[in-house]
Amino acid sequence: MLPVYILEDNEAQRSEYTSIINNTIMIEEYDMQLAVATDDPQVLLDSIASSEEGLFFLDMEIGSQPQAGLNLADDVRHRLPFAQIVFITTHEELSFLTLERRIAPLDYILKEQGPDTVKTKIEADIRATIDILKSEAEEHKNILGYKIGTRFFFSPYQRCYYAKY
C-alpha cells in the first residue's frame, strides 16, 4: 500500500486536500492510504521512517518559514529517492529552486489557479503516480541485474539466453 502524505499549514486547505485524496483513492480503488496530514514538517519526516516510497503533497511555506516544504522535500528525496513529490503553493518564484536542488517534483500546483483546478491536478497526480508505479513494476520484473567486480549491468530477460539443468 502506497502511503500519501500532506504538509499544509492552512487547516481548511489541508482538510480539502485530505477529502480530495481520500475520495480519489476510494472511487478509483487504489492501493493507497493517507498516512499523515499535518502542518508540522518534523511530524511528517518522522512518519516516513519505515516507508520505502510515497506520494507527498507539500506546501512550500509553513508558518513563517517560506521554504519549509522545500527543505522537507530535499530530506524526503534523500531518504526516498523514488518518492513522488507534488508542491501545492502560492510561491511560483520558488519553482526554480526545486530544479536547483534536484528534487524533481511530479507537479507544481499553484493555489491561485482556483480550487477546481487544484482538485483536478491532485486527482491527475494520484493517477500519474499509480501509472508510474505500474510501469516501474513491469520494467523491473523483466530486467536481470547483476554485478561483475565493481560494475553493475542490467539486461532485459528477453535478451538473455540460459540453459536449464
Explained architecture:
Helix 1 crosses helix 5. The model has no long low-confidence stretch (mean pLDDT 87). By secondary structure, the protein is of the alpha/beta class. It has a 5-stranded parallel sheet, with helices on both faces. Strands 6-7 form a two-stranded antiparallel sheet. The chain starts with a strand and ends in a 9-residue tail after the last strand. 42% of the residues lie in helices and 24% in strands. It has a single domain, classed as Rossmann fold.
Radius of gyration: 18 Å
Percent range for β-strand residues: 15-25%
CATH class division: Alpha Beta
- Distance separating the two termini: 38 Å
Quick check: average pLDDT?
87
Q: Report the order of strands and helices.
A: EHEHEHEHEHEE
Low-confidence stretches: none
- Supply the CATH architecture: 3-Layer(aba) Sandwich
State the helix count.
5
Number of strands: 7
Helix content: 40-55%
Give the CATH H-level superfamily. Response regulator
> The CATH topology, please?
Rossmann fold
Lateral arrangement of strands in the main beta sheet: 2-1-3-4-5
Q: How would you classify the helix and strand content by structural class?
A: alpha/beta
Largest sheet: 5 strands, parallel
- Our count of domains comes out at 1
